[in-house]
Amino acid sequence: MMAAVAQPKLDALSERLAGHALPEGGKWATETRKAALARLEAMGLPAPRDEYWRFTRPTTLNAPDPLPAAVFDHGGEAPVFGQIDRLKIVFVDGVFDAEASDPLELAGIEIERLEEAAGADIHWARDLYGVLETSGQSPVERPFAALNTAFAREGLVIRVTGKAARPVNLIYRHGDETSDGLVHHVVRLEPGADLTLLENGPSAARLNQVLEVEVGDGAAFHHVRTQGRDHERQAITHIFARLGRESTFKSFTLTVNGRLTRNECVVEMRGDDALAHIAGAAMGDGARAPFHHDDTVFVTHDALRCESRQVFKKVLRNGAVGVFQGKILVKPGAQKTDGYQKSQSLLLDEDSQFLAKPELEIYADDVACSHGSTSGAIDEEGLFYLRSRGVPEPEATDLLVLAFLADAIAEIEDGAVAEDITGRLEAWLRRRRG
Amino acid sequence: MLKINNLHVKLEEEDKAILKGVDLEVPDGAVHAIMGPNGSGKSTLSYVLSGRDGYVVTDGSASLDGADLLDMEPEERAAAGLFLAFQYPVEIPGVGNMTFLRTALNAQRTARGQEEMSAADFLKLVREKAKTLKIDADMLKRPVNMGFSGGEKKRNEILQMALLEPKMCILDETDSGLDVDAMKLVSDGVNALRDAGRSFLVITHYQRLLDHIVPDVVHIMSNGRIIKTGGPDLALEVEHNGYADILSETA
Description:
A: 10-stranded mixed β-sheet; 10-stranded mixed β-sheet; 20 strands
């Protein structure tokens, strides 16, 4: 029997959905969207009292309209990933921009817009769109993901059949101060396929994004994203990944600025000997706008000898708030699981806070799982040592900040991409020093 | 070069006087040694001069070429030409030794109004200096002092000194934790830097370092004061008779 859903959660949902209709023009997708809406209606939207939303207030994500967010001025800075030879696909305020994008053609890969795929009579995406999302709703509900499946019109469906000739770069521009982005991507890597997906930019004043990834046997998916620096932007994102035998899934996210960011990552290790590394580096300063950053990760081990690794680092100052909720669930029979989880924060003052809830739930008896969560201030000894060598205090602090984040950045496999991220952080810190 | 006048220092956290009127003057190009028993205030003196937190100067002054040291931030003292070789060099995980060395050198150059050194010139310079100190490429690549042996850490201190070319070098128990070979290597590194425009203050417990780095003047420190000053022979006297005789004769 299902527990009754609290009325405020349902009220929040009906307020949010007032005036919104499911997208038209879909064939198979119409059914999926209706089903998602039905699931959503059975959950309602998150309430501040929900255990899963204890550290992050869902209020502004629930609200019918987004809070306005000014568009960040990059001051002529070189674009993120600009040095990397990649296929560029541009979205503005969550809407595909054909003119700004490269043609959707690349050897080893098929790319279509969600709108086209949804309108086809038969499409492979049917077996994936909303399917991984649905599976990720248990044992914890994720209403914003269901809302996304039901209402998203924009997004890409990508099928990787071999080794993608170049990385695919999704560029999310933000132009309208009150835009409410709703984007849903589906990626399927056939057995042995290989794709690097790069994402950068704020997307919208408020973004709700879902990325469903099926990594076939022996396939490799590398994902690196940066979430833009617009101070007031908000985002709720979900990644749902299902991993086949001997597959690799690596995802890294860099977040700098943002009033509210919640990145959920739900990974299901289905095939034996698979590997999942999920990492994040966040740097927040509450001085200009509030900074609240939430990494919520759920890794399910349901196969033999899989390795999962979570490495999350946050640098917080001026009242910034960092949240980490990370869970490793080892199902019965998932023997020889190697699960590792690390979440650390560097608090640069006493106003900032880090809230962590690491969890292990293990139903197999031959596994190695560990987690560690720490929160600390800058190392005074190291700071003095640097200063005694002539490095001014702000620069010395930044050097230690970068050193602290290095563990997470080290999870990026591609050297050029990692260098882009590190170089950018250095430049942003320098810009901040003035 | 370095002038210390009637310096009184207490701990910030508790009302405990550590230095009780230190007077010391190190002329240009001179090497002075400070010896003394544990707890006499030798290391405190080096920390106060380099600007470490946790100490309060209650009286007196310290200046470098006439500039008031005590009024400067640690990085300003470094840019002015002061260098402390740490007794316990700090490990900094995540910061590569090369990055550290280059950042430090360029920060000092910037502070002095000089141009930053190019990556290529810097690399050449480091390689040359590292070679004489037997510091290999791996030590340059690793994070600062991480996984270094005691001897490697001290050699890394001398490498920094050689790169930054300070005019006033304070060596705080640089001999501690060194075997005979490492001590020779470190001493040779220091001696190679001896120059008419560069002065040294060598703090040590034991005379043996002073066999390698021969001082012009030796000071004995006890209970927060310099109690005796002499030539290199004074170090030998300590080596033979311990501090007891000197302490009782000046008591």
